[in-house]
Amino acid sequence: MPEKIIKTSPRLPEDAIVSVTVDAGDPFVHEIRAGQYVRIVDLEGNQAVDTLFYNAHNYADRYSAQDTIREQQNIYLTTGTKLISTERNVLLTIVADTCGRHDTLGGACSCESNMVRYDLEKRSMHACRQTFLKGAIDWSQHTGHSLDKRDLTANINFFMNVPVTPAGQLTFADGVSDAGKYVELRAEMDTLIAVSNCPQLNNPCNAYNPTPIQILIWNADEADKSIHV
Amino acid sequence: MNSSVLWEETLPGSSTWSHILKRGTALRLEALEDNCNVGALLLNADNFSERLNLPDTLKAQHIARLTTGAVLYSDMARILCSITDDTLGWHDPLGGCSDRTLVEKKYGASTYQQARNNWHQNALDGFLIELEKYGLNSRDLMMNINFFSKVEVHDDGSMHFIPNHSKAGSAVELRAEMNTLVILNTCQHPMDPDPIYAQRPVKLTLKKVEAPGPDDPCRTSRPENARGFTLTERYFL
Question: Potential cystine with A157: which of A103, A110, A182, B5 (Cβ 3.0-4.6 Å)?
Answer without folding.
Answer: A103
